[in-house]
Amino acid sequence: MKKLMAANWKMYKTRAEAEQTAKELVRLVGSLPEDREVLVFPPFTSIDVVTSVFEGHAGFFVGGQDFYTEQEGAFTGEIAPSMLVDCGARYGLAGHSERRHVLGETDVFVGDKTAFGLASGLKVVLCVGELLEERKADKVQEVLSRQIRAGLKGVPHDVDPASLAVAYEPVWAIGTGEVAGSDEIKDAHAICRNELIELFGDKGNDIRILYGGSVKPDNCSGIISLDNVDGVLVGGASLQGESFSKIVLA
Ligand code: PEP
């Protein structure tokens, strides 16, 4: 299974800046190791420019940070999976903690989105993760099980495992500089893996589980060598080609 090294650029970068960072990333990564894939989630407005930069570079993919649960209609401000595909995106992100906790997305809506994105031909990265108070209250297992079951509720049992990934992102580690410890990561990823096996049988072993939360060039190689860590999802440290290229090659 190739490690998926994913960048979430959130609401940063003009088109010119996105193009420059993508070019720098491709240049600094050089020939991508066989066991790695790169995925960048730029703002919607830069999906096409990053797609153009990645053209001809095997293993480099682009995704949309969000999408809606309809193909078209009177949904002002929303974007359909097919529109992302039309701009060059092959992946979509569902349930990022900022959408859950800043924009109020529910487990059910995130689940509808994941199922609809997959049915529309996108590969989907479903984000899950507990709040600090939930960790302190010993509720990590409960929260992850709930979010994974609801998030994957409408996904068919015979799903292609390559079309789905789960990103474990403890909310208290996102953008805080406070990375989760090795045991915390291993335990949480084991919970995710067990849920995936319960839902999809043996295929659950082939669904990638990414870690996200203050991944940096100097902590990435330790994290991706842990059991059940099949890649990373990186926010802050993915904004510069220099630091993200080091993460990709870690
Ligand atoms: C993220 O945005 O998904 C994320 C993990 O951010 P950061 O790497 O900055 O913690």
For this entry, give a set of tags.
single chain; 250 residues; alpha/beta; TIM Barrel; 39% helix; binds phosphoenolpyruvate
Could you explain the architecture of this structure?
The chain is α/β, with parallel strands linked by helices and 250 residues long. The protein has one domain: Aldolase class I (TIM Barrel, Alpha-Beta Barrel). It is 39% helix and 16% strand. It contains 10 helices and 8 strands. The protein has an 8-stranded parallel barrel, surrounded by 6 helices. Helix 1 links the parallel strand 1 and strand 2. Helix 1 packs parallel to helix 2. The longest helix is centred in the C-terminal third of the chain and has 19 residues. The chain is globular and about 45 Å long. The two termini are 16 Å apart. The structure holds phosphoenolpyruvate (PEP). It is found in: Cytoplasm. Belongs to the triosephosphate isomerase family. Keywords: Cytoplasm, Gluconeogenesis, Glycolysis, Isomerase. It holds the Pfam family TIM. This is Triosephosphate isomerase.
What is the ordering of alpha helices and beta strands? Answer: EHEHEHEHHEHHEHEHEH
Instruction: Briefly note the CATH topology name.
Output: TIM Barrel
Q: Which CATH-level-2 architecture?
A: Alpha-Beta Barrel
Strand content: 15-25%
Can you list the strand order of the major beta sheet? 1-2-3-4-5-6-7-8
Helical element count? 10
CATH superfamily membership: Aldolase class I
| Form type | globular
Q: Return the CATH class.
A: Alpha Beta
Helix and strand content put the structural class at alpha/beta
